[in-house]
Each structure stands twice: as C-alpha cells, then as structure tokens.
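User: I'm curious what two different proteins look like when written out as structure tokens. Can you demonstrate?

Assistant: Sure. I'll show them one after the other, since each token string lines up with its own sequence. Here's the first protein:
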Amino acid sequence: MTNLLNPNKYRYNEQSTKYIRNTITSWISELNTNYVLTVQFPIEKRTDDYEYSKSLLKSTMKDLEYFLLGNDWYKHHIPFIAFCESSISGTYHYHIFIYDNDVKLQDMKDALNKVFEKTGYDMHNLYLDPFFTVNTPNYCTKEIMGDKNRHFDTDRIITSFELFDIDTRYSKSQSRRARAKPKRKR
C-alpha cells in the first residue's frame, strides 16, 4: 500500500505534472460528466486514514446508488470517478464526477436526501453540483504530482468499478447464471 501523501515517492517534475494533470483533465471532460458530488464526512468521522475514508466513501456511494436504482444497483450501477483530496487538517474528502445521462437531477436530489436521513449527514457533507465547469477537473487534480517519467500516485483516483469491485462480482454472477441454465433437448 502506498502512502497517499508521501512527497518522497516521486521526485516532483513540473513539466510532467502539468502533462499528467492536462491528460486527466481531458479524460474527465470526454466522459460527459453530468454531476459533481463533493463528499466531506462529518467531523466525528473525518480521518487521516486513507483506507478508512475510502470505506466511508464506499458506504455513502452504495447508499446513494441503492436509493437511485434499488436492490440490484450493482448490476447496472452509475459510473463515477472519485478524486481524493487532503484538507489542511490532513483529513480526506472526495470530489466525484458522475457520468450517467439517465440520472435526472431531481432523482439525484431525492436519493441524496435519503442518504442524509440514513447517515445523519447534512447538506454541508454532501454537495451536488449539476453544472460541470471547465475548471472543475483542474481543481481536482491540483494535488497530483508527477516525476520526470510521468509516473504519479493513482491512489488518488478511484473509479466506481474499483470501489465496488463491480467487474469481479458481475462476472461471477454471470458465470453462476450460465451454469444454472438447463440445457435444451433437441
């Protein structure tokens, strides 16, 4: 496990860092992001432990997807990319780019309200921005640093597939279904 904020992991290179940030920004822009959701945990749950904050994010996003899609949300989940940031105090929060054209703004707001009720979070902990601006990806990549070989710490970028381990779970359920189907007699 890499230390997310280890400044010695890569020797900072300004030119490579600029290239990496621009590449990530272009990639995010091409995804046609519909919403940007900022998740900052309540004071009593804020942590400088990356793995714990990631588990809190997983729980929060699982609740959101459940309230949007129901019990089988993981079969056709809403794709997103989360960027982890460290605040001045050293605790983590996330900026999440949601790119699904089928999710309506009102449905997203209703699901967030249900998450608020379930978790006890308030409007300051989860902030939904339905407007995607050009500067948003630049803001989210400000802590990403690269070395002269254009290496950077990818722990800061979490896809929904990685967070929920969707590919593995989906392929297992598909193979179970395939084995369970009776063969037809000809």
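Here's a second, unrelated protein for contrast:
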Amino acid sequence: MKKVVLFFVYFMCCFTLFSQLSIALPTSDLCVQAYENNQTPGQCYKGDACSKWERVSIICEYAQKMKKAYAGYTYKNDMLPNFNSQSHLDACIQAEFDAKSDSTLLFQDRWRACIAGFQDTHMHLMTSTEFPHVSVGLQLIEIDGKVYIKARVSNLVKLYEAKNEDVNWGAILAVGNEILEIDGKTPELLIKEFAPYIPASSEKYRRASALNAATGRSFRYPTKSHLTIKIKDDNEKTYELELPWRVTENYLNRYDTDKYFKSLNIPVWEEALWTYSEQEGQYKPISENWEGYMFSQSLFDEDLLTTLKSPSGREVYSLGIIPLTKSIFATLQASDASQQSNKAAGGDVEKGYREINAGESSSSGAGNDSGESEVAYFSGGYNFCYAQIKTFNESRIVVGEKHAFVWAPLLSFLTTCEDRGLKLILDLRNNPGGNSFYPPSLAHYLIEDYSKNRVGNSTYAIRTNFSWMAQAYNSGRAIANAPRVIQGPTAEHMYPVLRQAHEEAYKAGKSKSNIAVVDYPGFDEDEMDEYQGFLYTGDMITLISPYCISACDRMSAILKRTKRSPIYGTATNGTGLGTAVPWYESNGEYYVGIPSYLFGVTDERIKNADEQQVTFDYDIYQEEWLLENRPTDADHQLSITLDDLRAGDYLGSYRKTVVNALIADDVTKLKN
C-alpha cells in the first residue's frame, strides 16, 4: 500500500511538472494544440463564452496573418521602444492560453490590447455586429495637466432633473468644471488603465482617447450600473455624485452584450448621440446633440462658411472668405451674417462656397470697448480665406443639383483667393484621412516644387501581403519599385503596378529594390483640366491636432517639410501605414484591418524631374521619410484654454492667435 501511495505521489508530481512545462511550450506548439483541440469553432460570437482552444486558435490565426501581411511588422521593432513584433504576438497567444475566463467580452478586450500593442491608429478589432457604446453623457479634455468637462449630452441635465430636482445639475455638470476622481481614481490613473486598449500611433492621441474612455467606451465595459464622480466647479466647490451608465440600443444585436447589460440593468440612450465610423473603428459624437466644445468645430462661425458634402451626406470641407473686423479680435463673431452672398466663381457649376463682401462689415463697434467703429479700425475691409478639410476619403461632392469631383470646388475657391490676393487658413484639426494620394496631388496647387513636378511626391515602403514574397524580402524591409506608369491618384492603378514590381524583384532575387519616385501631376479628372498650371501662392497657416490622421498626417508633413506653411496646434496623429485590408478569422465574425503598406513624403534632395529613381539604404528611408509613429509637430504650440472653455467661446484665444499671426503685417500697414 505504501508503494502505491508513493507511486501516486510521484505520478502527480510528474504530471504537475509536465503541465507547467506545457504552459511554457513554444507558441507554435500551442497553436498546433489549439487547432487540434478546438471542438467548438464559431462559439465565441454565438454566446457569451467560448473555449480556451477556440480563443487561442483565433489569436494564432491573427498572429500568422500579421507576420505575412502587416506592413509594420519589422518597422515597429525599430520604432517602438523595447518592442518586438514576434515576441509581442507570442505573448498574446500565451496570455490567451493562460486566461482563466471564457467570457467573450474579456476575450475581445484581451485581443484589443494585443492589437493596440502595435501602436497603429489604423488597426482595430471589429465584428460583423458592432460593439455597443456605453456612456454617462460627458466628454473630457485635458488642459495644462488637469481634466475638465468639455461637452455633455444636450438633454443630460433634464434627464437628471427628472429624477432629482433638488440638485443643480446644470451647475454641477457645467462645461469647464474639473474632474477630480471617477470611481475613486484620479484621471491620470484612468488614462493609464485604458491606454493599453487604444490603438494609437502617438502618445497624444492615445492619451486623449484613453481619457474619454473614462466616461464613454465600447470596450472594458463597466461592472456596475453607475460611476461615482467627484467634480469641482469654477468657485472651487466640490461635488460627489453618481451618474448612471446608458448604452446604445445596438447592444441588443449581440448575445454577449444583451445578456451583460441587462444583468446590470443599464438603460438605453433614447436619442442618436453617436455614429459608428468603420474607418476609425470607433463611435463619433453627433455634434448637434451635444453642447460644449467638439473637436469637429470650425474655427469661425458656421454662418460665415459653406459646408460641402459627399453624395452620402458626409461633410467634406467648409469654405469661407472671412471679413477682418474689430470683432474678430473682440467677440470673434461675424459682424453681420445678413450681408453674406452666395456668389459663384463662374462657370456652369455653382462652386459651392460663400463669399463675404469686402468692406461691408458692420460699424456698430461690437466688442469694441473703445467705441471705435469696425471700418475705422481696419480701413480697407481686409479679408482672408478659410478652408477646413474634414476628410480625404471622398471622391465626389454635391454642388447644387450636380455631383463634381471632390476637389473642384476647393480649387475654384483657392483661385478666387489667389485672384484677390487673400491669405489662407488651412484647418486640418479634425480629419481622419482617407486616400493617401490626395495630399501629394493637392500639393501641386499649393507648393511650387510640386506644381513643377520637381519633387517626387510619393514613395512607398511595402511589406506585401503576398505569401510568396516572404522568401524574397528580408523581414518586411522591402522597398517597392513603383514606376511612373501610375496614371492617377486611385488605388486600382497602384496595386497591379506594385505587384508586378514585387514579382520582378522576387525573380531577380532582390531583397531590396529601388525606391521609385512617383510623380502625381495633380488630379487627372476631366473636371480639373481648367486648373492645370494653377498655383495658390498666398501666405497660409495650417492648423493640426492629434485628430489629423493618416492622409491628413501626410498633408501636414508635406507642408512642413517643404516649409510652405507655418503649422499651429499640437501635433498630428502620427499615422503612416495605409490601406488597412480587412482580415477575417476563419469563422468570419471577427476581423481586423491590417495596413498593407508604409507611406511617407520625400524631401528636397529629389529636385530633378528626370531623376526617376533614387537608390539608398532602407534605414535612411525609414529614418527620414516614413511617418508612422512620427507625428508632425506644430511649429507653434496652441491649444484650447480653460478660460475659453468656461466662457463658451471655445476657440476664442486659439482663433485670435492664428488670425493675428496670419495678418499681422497687413494690420500694421492698415493702422498706419
């Protein structure tokens, strides 16, 4: 009997040791085990739980696809501190194997964190059925190291007053009030808690997104029906109260979220407060249903601008010729909207922008403490142009009853600005990007070197998603030879050419091919023929923020590196990976957009139009031209101020600084 007991103890020790060793198996072996043992494929999205082996199988699939298709697979090793793509993916697989919970929601959060580890704003976890968004109806902003309410749902105060009339909800939840704690945690702790789940190419964007996740998110769902928040108003009075969570109605479309939010008794938002952007992989607030400062806000009053939209209704850009009046520097409002007129710039198609009549501004002296009239202060009625580009993702735009090529009205507007000798504010603060060819093509009408085809506007470092390229190129350090046969700024022209270039490089046994200088001579659409040779030469200022993403990053980098325009704001997003190709796991429910190429901008070394190819080492190209994880920093740091946030003129000081910088010389001349 004693021998039997000893044998049993020995057996259990060996079994325990083997089990511990199996946990430390190479991830390739874990993946083999997962594929062999996954007996319940497709369960992760059918219920609220899924087995370990199915979860590990999915992460293994993702890891294998990333190695083959992700353009930043090697690049990230060089760019991110203490990071290795292979090691990171191995850790994701191991973490899923070690996870104790079978909850689909927690599995999805772990996967989000795995994706976010690559620090790529373009790469998101998505499903065929959107994750619902949960919120307490507040948006937050960080100013000078402290956190404040920047916006609230328009009817939020009424919702709370209906339940408790004894509380002055309007004063407590006022825009500009400081947030001291949420659920007993400081804002800084909350940022650190949510940051690992934010796919972000820069720290500023990650930090801002993590902060807003404290009061509204579609991941790491709350574990109770309310949050406890401590708020301090502008009179230094402190309040502590409970705010109930509410969830978007689409939670009913998923079994896991339906069960989860019903278990917490979390109610639904009755009005539409957000739209889901698949391009950005997140919910975007619908501005008209919020009060406070919105990132999408134009620099000038909407009455001074005409906003043009795509056929689908998406706002593409807002244009206006702004009258320089005393009120620009005082109340910073338009002097008299009734004096606006819709003038076409000529031609058969209404150009779709509003002109403000020069020299006809009100002389009421609004905002002028000295009593001087507007006209007396700025004799001559000086005007300037303003263009806020809100996306690079549309190809057509609605003008009157017709559809035009997206950039035709903008070029018409810039032609008017050029003819009148007006300076320009180019606002890129809230632009999620889109077609990466648009910025270099648009640059032909803004930058002399580009207009003369003297600068190669587009170079690409490609890590292809073709499996046969794995043998040919050294761990993603491929530089694609993209010859000049590309006819226009559209993706369908690019991919066949690049594939042919890859194939030729592979047959030649090259691990690196030449970098080709791809010249885009403006836009090749027929509607742009009348602008051939046009160049806007006026002075301009460009505005940026971390919400200037992808193609917008590229536009900002082009303007800065060519020194065409001083840049005001903070920094761009830092995205330089493009064309996120959706990859679906084998069950077809979860998918991730995996960027397929790196993009950047060239520099002044390429001057000769005859010099079609420039050959040099990848490391130089990576160091100097690529944009991913390299935000374009503003030349002049400028952010919203607390005083303006509390006063309600959210961009007041920002606007004044920019306008002063733009027209300082002219104002001096006018005064004299």
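A detail about the second structure: The longest helix spans residues 2-23.
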